Amino acid sequence: MTAATDATLFPPTPGRPDHVEPPRDADAVLDGLDPEQREVATALQGPVCVLAGAGTGKTRAITHRIAYGVRAGMLPPASVLAVTFTNRAAGEMRGRLRQLGATGVQARTFHSAALRQLQFFWPRAVGGELPQLLERKIQLVAEAAARSRIRLDRNELRDVTGEIEWSKVTQTTPEDYPAAVAKSSREAPRDPAETSRIFALYEQLKRDRSVIDFEDVLLLTVGVLQDRPDIADTVRGQYQHFVVDEYQDVSPLQQRLLELWLGDRDSLCVVGDASQTIYSFTGASPDHLLDFRTKHPDATVVKLVRDYRSTPQVVHLANGLLGQARGRAAEHRLELISQTGPGPDPVYAEYADEPAEAEGTARRIRELIDSGVPASGIAVLYRINAQSEIYEQALADAGVPYQLRGAERFFERAEVREAGVALRGAARAGGNDPLLEDAVDLPSQVRAVLTSRGWTTEPPAGSGAARDRWESLAALVRLAEDFRKARPQATLADLVAELDERANAQHAPTVEGVTLASLHSAKGLEWDAVFLVGLTEGMMPITYAKTDEQVEEERRLLYVGVTRARTHLGLSWALSRSPGGRASRRPSRFLNGLRPGSSASGARTAGGDGGVERGRSRKRRGPVRCRVCGRTLTDAGEMKLMRCEGCPSDLDEELYERLREWRSGQAQQLGQPAYCVFTDKTLMAIAETVPDSEAELSRISGVGARKLDRFGAAVLALCAGEEPVTEAVTEETEK
């Protein structure tokens, strides 16, 4: 992951050190700003609205605005309050202001600023000390549910907690919650009446124990400022100038607090982009940004559209994506203009199945790394976290280190670990487990066991923790189905062993590598290369996006994904879930008219598919057959071994152990996990075939040209019973 493009305060010049001294005077603060950024920086009077597209340097513009006002003597530092949404963003803003010589300015999150005021004024407004802040509300929600005689597992607790938070930031009371859900067309994760009861009892428990939660900080600050004009006057005497970043993400409660801070003044600068509104499920609304000019007719409005992040090719696609948008936010979209040099066209790739898509993506990433793009400058972005597992496996097989952002690794997720324990217990019990009485084959056994863990034939309505949990369990069910196709005689114990092997292969230490992340967690970040995967109907837009506005938010989510890329952009989809499956999927409607060979209506043009690449898949390579029994192989692990898991193995165990020991040493030298050298399956395949030439070694799955060049001589030496020459490997690595 990398810092924002505009992190450098001034354009680099020859011989200029990275650390810059504060500007000499106010005018020097304006050096290096483009005309629109300069207009923002010098607009110090009255309300100001900055509509800033992705990559246009909005943080640069507003920090220079504050610094220019401070250095020019027009904005006393202590009178300025800049608010944003994350501690990271607030910290970055404070750092930039210090470098610009604008010390003394307060840059905080809404909650941080409100908590400081509440702590200071509570004794005067209420008396005594402020109630203790509840760090984690989930335990109290669990108690409220139990007292309501409603059983909730950990994921359901997360859902209810999220609903309570949404209610509070939208200023919805427990009794009004069911009506508010219906009015907002939200898909509630459970019965609104039940959630309302839990919510009401949760609030009662807080009052009984004299504790407050995170949302109460805003609610109580609003209450104090509304009820005590003298305190409101004191706060307004302290802060006269306000700057709000990411204004499209403001909730109704935060907007109310901002209005109370302002009073009847208009010294307010807001910055945002309605096309990046993707958090409506948390109560965020772009309406405050879109209504700003109506509320403040005399406002100075500046549009930042010069994109310093992405190539013209990426920007063209981003503009095209929004060009098809509908709704109020779309009416205010910004047409970005790239300021960088040209780059490669976005690559659209269609694959026969999901494993082929993951392997193809990993192969492209390997090529980019070999061409000099750092692994940390590459990201794979998907719609839901349950999609990560297949990409974790594919990158591991390709020897590419990776890190997950905003989610646990698939096999480390609580529901997956719990499912593994349940499956292991059922495998040990065998026919004595009553859950398996009516199960006739391996998939039905897995479904029976996972039903006890919360899996159902149909997904739960809406999004949230319950949906995430279901997706993880559904991935295990699909894995069992694929495992049975590959090994019709496999038992539940065989599947458990397969899960253990996969988990072990992915329990590597965190390393600096390719980022795997959901589209939501990628907001605010950028990479040299971005791969947007799984772009099919039902995933993008997601199935539960029913209303026009929900579908449009999905389009904005894809737009955010596209605009994370600086240079390289890949977009891909798979026509079926598993190898040999029916090709019934369709590419996302959002790509209609943008991907080669498609029209805006989704119909194919006479020109065919144009520049859409046909990803290499198992079908195109022809069937891979077991070298022992001749059966066609479909499982990735079996294909690597070139034999069925159950067929006799002629593994040279001594060679296998020598290879593992050698791999351990190589991984230590490289500072990478062992799987980045070769996976266990690849080492097994080598120890079974015992190749005696580069040609034979290259035919083993997992030994590509790069690894053959780097490790081939050492592996062949081990196969011949000789000691490998490790120095050459180290030298090659350092080149």
Q: What can you tell me about this protein's structure?
A:
With 735 residues, this protein is an alpha/beta fold. Helix 10 packs across helix 11. Helix 23 links the parallel strand 15 and strand 16. Helix content is 46%, strand content 11%. The strands form 5 sheets. Strands 13-14-12-15-16-11-17 form a 7-stranded parallel β-sheet, sandwiched between helices. It is built from 30 helices and 19 strands. The N terminus and C terminus are likely disordered. It folds into 5 domains: 182 residues, P-loop containing nucleotide triphosphate hydrolases (Rossmann fold), CATH 3.40.50.300; 78 residues; 142 residues, Rossmann fold (3-Layer(aba) Sandwich); 96 residues, no CATH class; 85 residues, DNA polymerase, domain 1 (Orthogonal Bundle), CATH 1.10.150.
